[in-house]
Amino acid sequence: MATTPGTLITVAPTGAELSKGDFPQLPTTLEELVETAVACEAAGASMIHLHIRDAEHRPTLDHGHLKAAVDALREQTSLVVQLSTGGSVHDPLEQRLTVLDAEPDSCSLTCGTTNFGDDVFLNPYGFMSDLYVQAQEREVVPEFELFDLGHVAALARLIDAHGLPFGGKVHVDFVTGVPGGMPGTPAALVAGVSMLPAEVTSWSATGIGRTHLPIAAAALAAGGHLRVGMEDNVVFARGVPVQHNRELVERAARLAELMQRPAMSTGDARALLGVKD
Ligand code: KMH
Ligand code: ZN
Question: Cofactor(s) for this protein (predicted)?
């Protein structure tokens, strides 16, 4: 894997799990998403991982909502725009495939089924395979989400079966600390990194909840990139809630700077990921 001087910081501002009622500061409207994206880009983010909400602030995969968000973010920022194909645990597989119709730069592609708290996040091999091929055909760059060590093996199987993704790069993101997935510990992260197939060109990591900060530090120390955001963590420090996603990006950028791998530009992120200019 080539070494990169800078750090890719991805912001995942919303997710599908938290409710606006419980977290009024969660960006759920198009206006809030655009404001968040602009602020996070200024703070050092170069990619945004998006889940979209409807007028009632509920997760939606409605094409109009997705397309409006992709278009608005392209217009107002130069961030790499990644749409979630994971959606919520309640979204049907067929509908999750239609996310590609909104023509994002990138899409998430989770490499296996995982227990997800009391729910199951379903990703059968046939679904992953269809999504992989459709992303290739539509020139969308997947980010492979690895919630567990078995997902690393499934990624290798996908690459063997279908060749490289569009753009020729393979970027993965370890999502650690989900109850039911790999723990958010440096040991688990390093185990995952050590298993990555040779085709992988870059990796990032995030930790859910209280594992957010230690996993960011571990990822930087191990040469990885960062994902932060309210999708993964809403507590900035003990007793201090996150008020705005920008705070998490700012802290990630400070950490990266301290580690002498400052936040990379959106142009460098596009080159790293193989995303179209
Ligand atoms: N909301 C989770 C069930 C993704 O975005 O691809 C799945 C998830 C992963 O967040
Ligand atoms: Zn997500």
Answer: Zn(2+)
Question: What CATH number has the domain bearing residue 182?
Answer: 3.20.20.70
- Closest ligand 1 atom to 17 CA: 1
- Do the domain assignments include residue 1? no
Note the ipTM here: 0.99
Residue 204 three-state SS: strand
Q: Is 61:96 a contact under the CB 8 Å cutoff?
A: yes
Determine, yes or no, domain membership for 135: yes
Average pLDDT over residues 171-184: 98
Query: Which residues, including other chains, have CB under 8 Å from residue 32's CB and lie 6 or more apart?
Result: none
β-pair partners for 146: 174
Q: Which tens digits make up the pLDDT trace of 190-216?
A: 999 999 999 999 999 999 999 999 999
Q: Which domain holds residue 191?
A: 9-273
Tokens of 24: 């009024």
For the entire predicted model, the pTM comes to 0.98
Q: How far, in Å, is the centroid of ligand 2 from the Cα of 4?
A: 25
